[in-house]
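Standup notes
- DV: blocked on the single-chain target, sequence here:
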Amino acid sequence: YKMAAGMRDEVTALEHSTLKVPYELLNKKFRTIQKLVDKEVSHVSSSLSDLTTCTDNTLSTNEDMITSIDGVAQRINILKRKVEEGLEDELECSRLCKSRIDHLKPYTSGEQSDGVMTAWRKIRLDRMLVDHFLREGHYSTAISLANASDLIDLVDVNVFQLCQRVEEGLKSHNTGPCLAWCHDNRSKLRRLKSSLEYRVRLQDFIELIRQERRLDAVKYAKKHLSNGGEELLEDLKSAMALLAFSPDTNCKKYKRLFSLKRWEELIIQFRTENLALYQLNNQSVLTATLQAGLSALKTPLCYKQMEQNLQCPVCSTLFNELASALPYSHSSQSYLICRISGEPMNEHNPPMLLPNGYVYGEQALLKLS
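- DV (later): unblocked, structure below
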């Protein structure tokens, strides 16, 4: 029972995004379809009202009646088509939720064999790698690994593929895909108090000035930048001052605004906002797990050249620098490790004190002798 409870706690800690993303997608699809259906139902009601009016009018001809009936039938067909399309989208999101729940169930039961658990953990590691690659922008690598390991239903490739299109647009200085994404998610971004759309619009304004289209820039600012709020007022003031400067200005404040690095900043902000949209952490599960493991093993001796353990991951060149900013582990008991073999010294490998004061494991000394 304790083992099963521990596994459930582990799943809760590490698998939050596995279920959260498809749930949020299902919720988004439901709300979008609900708005479309409400809109089409109002159109059908309007067409029915026109038909009723036409029926009550004694001056209406047969052609008028046929036209009204055709209008009602057309609206009903449009409503039916959109409902069917929406139902397919919702069923697909529900299928993803079910497939991921079915994937997690065997692990939480704690009744599987060691071989099954080892295979399951291998799949989870691959999922963590795919998620990390997607977050870092290595989309082709992530998709290749997901296809090779048959993980498409267990990872959020589709969500991040949309991100890829937005990021590629920003890299090519095209704000269209990003603005379309902002429009599709406007209600949630407003609740998150996101400034992404405003900053993207501000970058469009700067690019118009860079192209010497200052009059167009002023018109654009009046249309899109007049409702940013007090918190963005200073940014707007600085941007408006660019009208008096050329793109090759040496003034540091305005040179920074003309800098092309602002596009990279927009990409970073977009990634952050996209993760917040699905209530995901900025760090990948792989990064969090790796940091937790390194911190649990890290001791002050890991950073003393002559005291490092050959079998300690933190002492290795690869992880030593990565763990430098992490806290040390809290150990209530000390363990003696043989400097030669890296094996623990205990009743099966008793410590042996040499005349020079150094202590080594008996088994290592026997092998050397």
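- Follow-up: The first strand starts at residue 351 and ends at 353.
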